[in-house]
Amino acid sequence: MKIIAGLGNPGPKYSGNRHNIGFMAADALQRLPGFAPWSKKFKAEISEGELAGEKVLLMKPQTYMNLSGEAVGEAMRFYKLAPADILAIYDELDLAPGKVRLKTGGGHGGHNGVKSLDAHCGKEYRRLRLGIGHPGSKELVHNHVLGDFAKSDRTWLKPLLDAIADNAAMLVKGEDSQFLNKLALAVGDKPAAQAAAPDPKKPAMQSHIRQARNQKPAAPATGPMADMLKKLFGGKVD
Q: Of all residues in the chain, what percent carry a pLDDT higher than 70?
């Protein structure tokens, strides 16, 4: 079994907050065919289903963000799972809106939900970080993360959440690069492989050896070789 935990704060007051993008992603996954309606267990809302032949437990901890690890840790111990069996989805200030990163382990970056997960589950779980952008100064961070997404964010937010759900099987199968490319395409970015590919309009670079081979050697203008060439070609030497 795998646990996919979206992080956020419970209640309608917080439902549209940038800090709740993890909950939003979990909701998008729960709407996939085969997932049960939300129920309550492990201090969380949970939904069981299947992705790529693997049992999956979706979780939305109801302990508030700062205590998210209590709920996820309880479920992890109940099912006798390892940290590697957990995927946490949460907001990331240090990524531009719509940008995504996926990795195993790492620091908490000041995110209180991640601090709690580290304390209750260990650090070697997978982390899907969804960019919400930084407001520009530390004093504005609190209102930014606990503020609702702006109307302008709709251009990337819904396509991103839909792409997470549509390609969730890749997450379970460990096809991380393909998954990230799908998300990049959904929000209008170039996928990593395409961004690294050479521009077909530009001529390919050649090594200095190949360049030398392709160059036509100049005929000598004077000397015995020049005289011989003039006799052979009737005085026309290029």
A: 79
Give the pLDDT band (50/70/90) at residue 187.
confident
Return the C-alpha torsion angle 65, 67, 72, 74, nearest 10: -160
For the beta carbon of residue 48, count every other beta carbon within 10 angstroms.
15
Q: Coil, strand or helix: which one is 82?
A: coil
130 half-sphere exposure, CB direction, 13 A CA radius: 30
Say what the pLDDT of residue 234 is: 59
Give the active site residues. 19
Q: What's the token pair of residue 60?
A: 């939305």
Does the structure show a pLDDT above 50 at 212? no
Query: How many CB atoms are closer than 10 A to CB 185?
Result: 14
Please give the structure tokens belonging to residue 4: 């996919």
